[in-house]
Amino acid sequence: MSAPAADEKVIADVARWLNEVVIGLNLCPFSGKPARENRVRFFVSTAIDDEVLLQDLQQEMELLDQKPASEIETTLVIIPHHLRDFFDYNQFLNWTNQLLKRNRWVGVYQFATFHPHYCFAHAEPDDAENLTNRAPYPILHIIREASLEKALEYFADVEEIPEVNKARVEGLTAEEKQTLFPYLFGAN
Asked: Which terminus of the chain has a lower count of CB atoms within 10 Å, N or C?
């Protein structure tokens, strides 16, 4: 499989997850509009080490600096070849915070985190609530803080989203879980 074809499959997997899980289950009420308007950028990082991934993240935030939200609202940096271990992924997040500080992007961008083995700090690995952040590949979602603040103005009860999402994924049947999360069951 050539690199572009491999990237196309990775993007297709993530687009399916975004549309069927994140938007389909309404886990993020802010995601539907940018997705419908084709303002979500999918960037497949070829990084196999932290340094290259940090360069990719910086490049993507510099691109967001140059492009208005009306053109690119947000970027999903997909990491198919690195940080497959969730512990390593979590450790890498320290570097992302340093990247934000070094470039004076604190308050400009923030990261939402997704991983096939995502596990909340207070949860057991098999707890259904982890499904809210389980994606087909490790992903760092670059969010414009200004856009997030604007979106929050239009949504009531934002603080309830995590509990609503937890209840939503806990209510999925085994068959629905297999359909929505095939990569967790050996299918993809």
From this structure: N
- For 117, half-sphere exposure in the C-beta direction (CA atoms, 13 angstrom radius) is 8
Asked, for residue 102, whether it belongs to a domain, the answer is yes
pTM over 0.85: yes
Residue 120, domain extent: 3-182
Quick one: average pLDDT of 33-48? 96
Beta-carbon-side half-sphere exposure of residue 65 (alpha carbons within 13 Å): 11
pLDDT digits (tens, 9 = 90+) for 17-36: 999 999 999 999 889 999 99
Asked whether residue 188 is domain-assigned, the answer is no
Q: How many domains does the chain have?
A: 1
Closest C-alpha among 69, 20, 16 to residue 41? 69
| Closest listed residue to residue 87, CA positions, set 63, 115, 46, 67 | 115
Collapse the DSSP code of 75 into the 3-class scheme (helix H, G, I; strand E, B; otherwise coil) and give the result.
Answer: strand
